[in-house]
Amino acid sequence: MPKFNNYFRIPAVAGPEVLVIATPDGVETLNATASQIAGAPADSPPSGEFFAEEGAKISRYGDRFFIGAASDYPALNTRDVAHQDWLSSLMATTSIGPWALENAQAASLSRFGNSAFVAGSRTSDAMKWRDKLGHVPSTIGVASWGIADDATNPTQATAYAYYGEAWRMPGVNYQPSFVMELEAVNLGGPAYGMSTPYHPNCGGGTYAIQIGAGGGQTEGTADCEAGIVFVSNPDSWKTGILFGNTALAGTNGDDGGYATAISMARGQGIEWRTPETREHVQGLDAGAMLFSTVSQTAKGQRIQFADDGLLVTNMTGNLLFSVSPNNAPTNTLNIQAGSGLAAAGLYVQKGENGSPNLGLYPAEGGEIQMSSPVASLGGAVPQQAGGGFLHLNVNGKDYRVPLFTAEQVGD
């Protein structure tokens, strides 16, 4: 009989091969297939190393890997199978079909409604083992890349570093469904510093999402298109961005407080694009813009919509001017710029059963002031008002002011 280690090696194990094993007490020998042994619970203590050449134990699976309920998936080159995992069975009832596991290199599906996959990492370990690793790694719980490297044009290939769906099935009316929930948990008290558009990250800051562009590359990259894009696929969102009334520190949405929902730097603004097409691109041009070019707080202004009107104040809250509300206006005021010889001015639009009057009301003891060229200083007053009489009401009493033409009194 040849020595045990002289038997020829087979290039691969398919699974049904029979091996002889012994019970833990060594009394009884048993037969088991390679698949049965591979499926037995593994108990491999850590080697204490990370790199293979230093003694770390490395397990490799060259093909596909399915965990939990994902192991029910037959992994055949067809969707027409009698039995498959619960996710594929559910997706098969929809218009898009069971594509998830069909394209999966590895998958994990829960059988008991628990977390299908959990990952975590600690910065303390990154510092503790920096000598062993040879560097201080970024402490990342989950990392993924979607690489778009198919340069054919046109192509159907699209890259996603992450993709997720949350399905609400018929009859689910009590609890909400979330595609993703991100929680920042601050157990360290107030941060050392403050985040601003000019200094986004501060020491001890906790942030739910940070969206960067460039991946830290130092060359060969360019500006990216947009940080967040909302699309219809094919359904629409009822609201694009929604802030809960107690989500922001400073107000509960029903008090006199204030909280910052969006903070931007000088020169950054909001644009509304028009549906017109130019250079074969729809929405290339803006139809409205809202932005600030204020360089100093002392020169800034605030706009506030209050119960008593639209308030425009300086940055300390002192009122500059206001527009009072009106529940049922009939007469409206237009402010128009002039073109050519047409005067810029204030114009009253008389509503049904409304008033055509324009009112100017100084405070008590005040006066109406204006500047105008003066003609024929000290000249005689004509006997007739060639331009008729201007109607004025001062302190509730009607007056008529004669209007003399330029021919009567001169330019």
Question: How many strands, which pairing sense, and closed or not: the largest β-sheet?
Answer: 3 strands, antiparallel
Are there runs of 5+ residues with pLDDT below 50, and where? none
How far apart are the termini?
A: 132 Å
Structural class: mainly beta
Query: Considering DSSP H and I runs of 4 or more, what fraction of the residues is helical?
Result: under 10%
**Beta-strand content bin:** 15-25%
Total number of strands? 15
**Which overall shape is indicated by the principal axes computed on the Cα atoms?**
elongated
State the strand order across the main sheet.
Answer: 9-10-11
Set down the secondary structure blueprint:
Blueprint: E1 18-22, E2 29-33, H1 34-39, E3 65-68, H2 86-91, E4 106-109, H3 123-128, H4 130-133, E5 269-273, E6 277-278, E7 281-282, E8 286-291, E9 301-306, E10 309-314, E11 319-323, E12 332-336, E13 345-349, E14 389-394, E15 397-402, H5 406-409
Parallel strand pairs: 3-4
Antiparallel strand pairs: 1-2, 5-8, 6-7, 9-10, 10-11, 12-13, 14-15
